[in-house]
Amino acid sequence: MSTIEASTELKAKWHEESAELKPSVWNGGRVPMGVPFGKMMMWFFLLSDAFTFSSLLVAYGYFRATATLPNGASSWVTPEKVFDGIPWIVDGHMPLVFVGIMTFILIFSSVTMVLAVEAGHRMDKKTVVKYMIFTIIGGLMFLSCQAMEWSHLIIKEGLRLNFNPFAASGDPTGMTHGSVMFGQLFFTITGFHGFHVFTGVIINCLVCSAAYRGVFQKKGHYEMVEKVGLYWHFVDLVWVFVFTLFYLIN
Amino acid sequence: MSEHTIDAGHAGQEPDSEVIYEGHGFNVIEHGVHHPHSTRKQIWRVFFVMLAITVLEFFIALTPYTEAAVGRTGKIGIFFLLTVIKAFYIVGYFMHLKQEKMNMAYAILIPLLFILYLITLLMFEGSVSTHIPLP
After folding, report:
1. Which of A89, A169, B86, B118 has the most other CB atoms within 10 Å of its CB?
2. Residue A90 confidence (pLDDT)
3. Is A35-248 assigned to CATH 3.40.190.10?
């Protein structure tokens, strides 16, 4: 008997025996994590993404704390000066209003997403599609707000990766470590977050169209909506931290 | 229910947390499936809690009272505390981590301690670079 035949026979025997076994901890009867494989992997992906974002945000904290002028004062740019007003609409003296609107949009789209997941549990196709469309609209609104903010800072104010027009008074060049790092970290972190929102919107569109076509209804579960929901909530979670670190702390 | 109903570790105690295999995946049957209205109510409750926290953050940021009372460091501490509370609500209720098995929750939450480790390291060792002249 050849080795291949022997192994095939062994395999068949193993399958026969394992079919008779009762489910237990040792033969896969219990699910250690209690979640489907895809959902678990989405969680682990988000964990790795959390590390990426936290290293960016920790770097932000580090550079902000170490930004000093020769006289010992902080050379970090005052965020209130940069985010003062509604880009392209109101010029100045309205700190935090625009970013408040952005935060509200993102939290609200998170709520519509979780409502879509909840409707998926009930196999309610129509409601799933409805709330997914609301979520997509929320994501697009957030991206538009970010486009307004970025274009305003770049075109109108002249914020560059190597120059900051809002530099602290002790830094007339606008090119010290604190001034320059502000722009670099702002564009990197909000850009990376915005890219996540962008991919989230695209994935949401794909899942929404699949839900509309009845793919998940045929499958018998709306697990895919749950997975894309996890991603979307994570994007919201990151924004909560970006909001605190960049806009709130003055 | 399908014939492949398998005990998820709480048989007899919590019939609501049974795992049912369906097709390729399986759904953890949650309390919400039996009471959709209370789940939706809870979602909106969490939303209003988060909205209230955000409004409180705006109040602290835009009025001078908090800084006068607890100083700048205290204000930043309050901001971080409120942010972590918001994160708890998002992860626990929106991402349903509170309804997952403890194995799953620990597998996600324990590695996050490395972030605290990085922050601690930089707080103690980060001052090294302040001696290096930066442009």
Report:
1. B86
2. 84
3. no
Residues in A closer than 8 angstroms to B17, CB to CB, are 34
pLDDT beyond 60 at A240 = yes
Are A177 and B39 a contacting pair at CB < 8 A?
Answer: no
**Average pLDDT taken over every residue of chain B:** 77
- Asked if A240 lies within 8 A of B129 by C-beta distance, the reply is no
Contacts of A111 in chain B (CB under 8 A): 43-44, 47, 94
Domain residue extents for chain A: 1-30, 35-248
For chain A, what percent of residues have pLDDT higher than 70?
94
Smallest CA–CA distance, residue A3 to chain B, in Å, is: 33
Beta-carbon separation of A118 and B36 below 8 A:
yes
Question: Which residues of chain B fall below pLDDT 70?
Answer: 1-35, 129-135
Q: Read off the pTM.
A: 0.82
* A36 and B CB contact within 8 Å: yes
Q: How far apart are CA A161 and CA A179, in angstroms?
A: 10
**More confident position, A180 or A133:** A133
Write out the H or E segment, with its range, that includes residue B20.
strand B19-22
B75/chain A closest Cα distance in angstroms:
8
Q: For this complex, say whether ipTM is above 0.90.
A: no
Distance CA A62, CA B124 (A): 11
Which of B18, B34, B14 is CA-nearest to residue B26?
B18
Alpha carbon separation from A150 to A88, A143, A153, A156 (Å, rounded) = 11, 10, 5, 10
